[in-house]
Amino acid sequence: MPLLALFSLLYYVIVFSLMHSPSPSYTFSATAAAKDCTLRNSFEPSFVAEGDFVIGGIFPLHYNQEMPDQNYTYRPPPVKCNGFDPRAFRWVQTMRLAVEEINYSSELLPNHTMGYKIFDSCAYPLTGQRAALAVLNGLSEDDSPMCTGASPMLAVIGESGSAQSIVVSRLLRPFRIPMISYFSSCACFTDRRKYPTFFRVIPNDDYQVKAIAQLLVHFNWTWVGLLRGDHEYGRFAVQGLLRELQGSTVCVAYQEMIPLLYNTQRALEIISSAKVVVVFSAEGEMTPFLRDYMMQNITGIQWVASEAWVTASVFTGREFYPYLGGTIGFGIRKGQIARLSDYLQTVNPQRYPNNVLVGELWGSLYGCNPFPSSANHLPICSGQEVLLEQHSAYMNTSSPRVAYNVYKAVYAVAHSLHNLLLCQPGNGPFENNSCAQISNILPWQLQYYLQEAKFNIAGEEVNFDLKGDSVPYYDIINWQRGTAGNIELVNVGLFDGTKPAGEELVIQEDKIMWAGHQSEVPVSVCSPSCPPGSRKAVRRGEPVCCFDCVPCDSGKISNQTKCMFCPEDFWSNKDRTACIPKEVEFLAYDALGIPLTVISVVGASLTVGIFGVFFYHRNTAIVRVNNSELSFFILFALILCFLCSLVFIGEPTFWSCMLRHTAFSITFSLCISCILGKTLVVLAAFTATRPGDNIMKWFGPKQQRAIIFSCTLVQVVICAAWLIDAPPYPIRNTKYERSKIILECSVGSSLAFWCVLGYIGLQACLCFVLAFLARKLPGNFNEAKYITFSMLIFSAVWLAFIPAYISAPGNYSGAVESFAILASSFGLLFCLFAPKCYIILLKPQKNTKQHLMGKEKK
Question: Which residues does the UniProt record annotate as the domain G-protein coupled receptors family 3 profile (predicted)?
Answer without folding.
Answer: 592-856
